[in-house]
Amino acid sequence: MQNSAKHLLFILSLVCYGLAGNVDPNGIKPGMVQVHGGTLFWSVITFILLLIVLRKVAWSPIIDALETRENEIKDALSSAENARENAEKATKDYDELVKKAQLEAQDIIAESKLTGERLKQEIKVAAENEAQEILEKAQSKINTERDQAINEIKSVVVDLSIQVASKVIEKNLDSDDNKRIINDTIDGIGKA
Known about the structure:
Layout: H1 2-21, H2 37-170, H3 175-191
């Protein structure tokens, strides 16, 4: 920047010097721009002073603001890159967690199915055992009641036989009387 300012100042001073030496007061033509060396010299000096003042007053703050803005943009880009990397990492972690949760869910479902089958078999075996016990108890009860019924029938038959025998002995009757007594006795069995 300083080298270009020095070159510009040198070129302007050469132009001013060249214009100041070629002034022909009689060669003024209408419509042409007249350049006076003194005016040009002071205009260049004023322009250079204006550049120096602007450099100190305006360019430094503008350049500082631009550098600050550039740093802010770099920081924002860096933050955005970090955020993108963090988001990618979080997405990767999330995907891993989802896969892990799916595997665990599949394991739980498989284990639940096995447990359900095992419980089903256990319930089935228990039900079959209980049914077998009920059948055995029922069979035992049937046998007991049958034995009791047979004993009761035997008792009744014995009583009837005794009654029939006593009636036969009491009275020795003919065969029609015997048939009638047996029929009366059989009819009496249903009522007793």
